[in-house]
Amino acid sequence: MTNRPATIHAVIAFFLLSALIFFLYSQTLHAPFLFDDDVNILGNPSVRITELNLHSLAHAALDSPMASRPISNISIALNYFFHGYSTTGYHITNIIIHLLNGIFLYLFLKTTLDLLPAKNPAANSNDLIALITTGLWLIHPLQTQSVSYIVQRMNSLGAMFFLISLLLYIKARLSDLPFRYWLYAASCIAALLAFGSKENTVFLPFFIFLYEWYFFQNLDRQWLKRHLLPIFGIILLLGTISIIYLGVNPWQTILDSYKTRDFTLGQRLLTELRVVVHYISLIIFPYPARLTVDYDFPVSISLLNPASTLLSLLVIIAILIYGVRIATRDKLTSFCIIWFFVNLIIESSVIGLEIIYEHRTYLPSMLVILLLVQIGDKILKHGYIKISIVALIFLCFSCWTHERNRIWADDLAFWLDNVQKSSGKARPQNNYGKVLKAKGRIDEAIYHFKEAIRINPHYDQAHYNLGNALEGSGMLEEALGHYEEAIRSNPKFALAHYNMGVVYEKMAKPTEAANHYIEAIRLKSNYAMAYNNLGILYAKQGDYQKALEHFETALTLQPDDTFARQNINRCRILMNNRQ
């Protein structure tokens, strides 16, 4: 039977939490697109839908850079349809998804705690523990990377459907026939939506099976033996999903993912031991000075270099052993431990991704916070002490999240924060320079581009950006040198070839300019601007027919290109005058 007062209290609490969340994230409502937003949103023509139909949505879903995340791509395309490039709509959507995750997390925790035997201390205050856990998770500073960073909608959306699917399965197990089957079907649909949002949800079938065994079968080993076929089915399903994501040769795909990295597979595995322990420390103490986006995290060379690698391995092994040994006495603690580590496997193991990102803790941190709340509830005996400590933590987390969002609200503050916290890494220097250049602070931008090159002499983007800044300052010879360095580091850098063409045009060297425009088109066949500029060169040489062909190609590739359209009209006038 539903506890009516508890339900009313929960609803009131969620209204208050929602108001708090909107306040904490209000300063990010007009925050710009940042970092990978450039590739996945601004530089992704597939999500620029102007009509709301199946064809445009399918195009957005499957032709985007992250084609394995069609549901996330569709959500971004819908934002573009309604809001264009005004970021407010994107940010409001992210905040709403975060709040929905809070609701589903509360329902999941409350339902799970109610399944525990009454003798479990947690069962005496299930509503309050679920509510406090959810509140702390919602306002936790670590979540800013999944909420304020627009493209990490993929992360929060995947977590939302993960929770919905698991919750629907639990509700199905607690329901009578035939309604149970409808809930199972809904759970499967939510699972597919989770898989289509982000790959880190792939272990959802494992957690459904694990939840069944822990909380409905009471860790009955005989039941486990009788269900070897479903276990095999889950393994087969995980293998199938891996092939969908990684191709028919997953291992080769994994090895290929290291081609552009400055660390090996072995080094990444060793480093992730320290990263996982670092994640735990951030969940416990998320002070803003410890948080950043573009970490300069030292790579582990061996178990003893640095020594914290071995220490981290021992800590992880100890926690896992404890989680297994305590399972029969404290199922919830054991499940929380498994939840954290398994949900990190995809992004913290063999695939050659970036070493560390805070948004990877979004889903794993949920039950770690529950575990910490439980520990506090058991240790602290007096009610007023519990209330005081919870209030203090809420206050600290709220202040820290507000402080962190101040950084997310401004691109200059964002990249300056990364430069200050990762001063030995080239990318923050380069990206800070780009923002400075966009704001007209050219001399400062040039300094940071040079810093990026000092740190990494073969950084193609830094050479390109420095060349661009020098070109804008009239230093054409110096600009050419850095464009050449960019191409030397990245022979497929079409944009650098294009800019070399522009510089050679300014230097009155049309042959060299044409050669680089042609190379840019060879590397990027849909490069409308290169076609347009090449057409202008042909027109200047009097080859109007060839110029017209290039202008028309540019317009076909980019129908809203007014320059190409004007050039076509001028070219036709010149052709008619010649006749």
Q: Which short descriptors sum up this protein?
A:
Serine Threonine Protein Phosphatase 5, Tetratricopeptide repeat, mainly alpha, 0% strand, 70% helix, elongated
Order of helices and strands: HHHHHHHHHHHHHHHHHHHHHHHHHHHH
How far apart the termini lie comes to 90 Å
Instruction: Count all strands and give the number.
Output: 0
The low-confidence parts are none
Structural class: mainly alpha
Task: Describe the structure in your own words.
This protein is mainly α. It folds into 2 domains: 4-33 and 85-407, no CATH class; 412-578, Serine Threonine Protein Phosphatase 5, Tetratricopeptide repeat (Alpha Horseshoe), CATH 1.25.40.10. The chain contains 28 helices and no strands. α5 runs parallel beside α8, α6 (126-139) packs parallel to α18 (383-408) and α22 packs antiparallel against α23. The longest helix is centred in the first third of the chain and has 29 residues, at 87-115. The model has no long low-confidence stretch (mean pLDDT 92).
